[in-house]
Specification:
Layout: E1 20-29, E2 34-44, H1 50-55, H2 62-80, E3 85-90, H3 98-112, E4 119-123, H4 132-144, E5 148-154, H5 161-167, E6 171-174, H6 176-179, H7 186-201, E7 205-209, H8 214-224, E8 228-230, E9 238-239, H9 247-250
Parallel strand pairs: 2-3, 3-4, 4-5, 5-6, 6-7, 7-8
Antiparallel strand pairs: 1-2, 1-8, 1-9
Helix pairs in contact: 2-3
Length: about 250
């Protein structure tokens, strides 16, 4: 991983060694009845899942692949005419490369005419962003570049409350492991109610990811006050397309 400017992070095409496409999955806001964004999900040229594509990337090229995905997703989203928020995954950003990792998609968005204020960077690992000082700096640098930030997989792993307070993301995504069957699990209900209350106190938006059942949506909306969702219940990802969401699912 580079600690200084690495030309390959600007021109990644010669090092990733794999063909990629993007599937887009909508995120919805209930009550107001709208699609408020799309997450760009990497796929293979024949629709292979992200896990199989990443498995074929050499470890020394993972940062370049990570950068390639963001810049290509911005290009594809602009071509599709996505006018709402664009959620982009970030898995290989570190204190040593954060400046360059933000500068390249910033330039790509400007060239593509895509409003940087509509780009939300999803960080799957806050630990990778370093110590508390470095974590806070990553947030500030992303904001200075015009982006918003999101803490992904919240409720599992190492994305704890201390890092949440330091990072100050604009959004969190509640992990599927927490959401699955929440309507019938008091333990998960207690976890989510605590996390939602903390996020409200910190003015952080909450997105429930991986929802697959009407019962999950109903409990989260009525009992936890969550109104932003993503999951198969609303729409599956589609390659190079903006999937439609049934208007009946978006109503009150």
């Amino acid at each position: 991983m580079a600690t200084d400017h690495d030309p390959k992070l600007d021109d990644y095409t010669e090092v990733i060694g794999v063909g990629i496409e993007f599937a887009f999955q909508p995120l919805v806001q209930l009550g107001v009845g709208r699609v408020f964004g799309y997450e760009a999900l990497v796929r293979g040229r024949s629709g292979e899942p992200a896990s199989s594509i990443i498995a074929n990337v050499r470890p020394e090229n993972l940062a370049y692949f990570d950068q390639a995905c963001r810049t290509r997703a911005i290009q594809d989203a602009a071509a599709l005419g996505i006018g709402s928020n664009l959620f982009l995954n970030c898995t290989q950003i570190t204190p040593g490369n954060v400046d360059q990792m933000l500068a390249v998609p910033r330039r790509k968005a400007d060239r593509a005419g895509f409003d940087r204020g509509r780009i939300v960077l999803e960080f799957s690992s806050l630990a990778r962003l370093g110590n508390p000082r470095e974590l806070a700096a990553a947030h500030d640098k992303a904001e200075d570049a015009g982006f918003r930030v999101l803490a992904d997989n919240f409720g599992t792993g190492e994305a704890g409350l201390k890092r949440l307070v330091v990072f100050r993301p604009h959004f969190i995504k509640l992990d599927r492991e927490v959401i699955n069957g929440i309507h019938s699990s008091r333990r998960r209900q207690a976890m989510v109610l605590g996390m939602v209350a903390t996020c409200r106190a910190l003015d952080i938006g909450v997105i429930a990811a991986g929802v697959e059942r009407a019962e999950e949506v109903e409990w989260l909306k009525q009992c936890a006050g969550v109104d932003h969702f993503q999951g198969f219940y609303f729409a599956r990802p589609e390659i190079q397309a903006k999937p439609a969401v049934d208007p009946q699912l978006l109503g009150d």
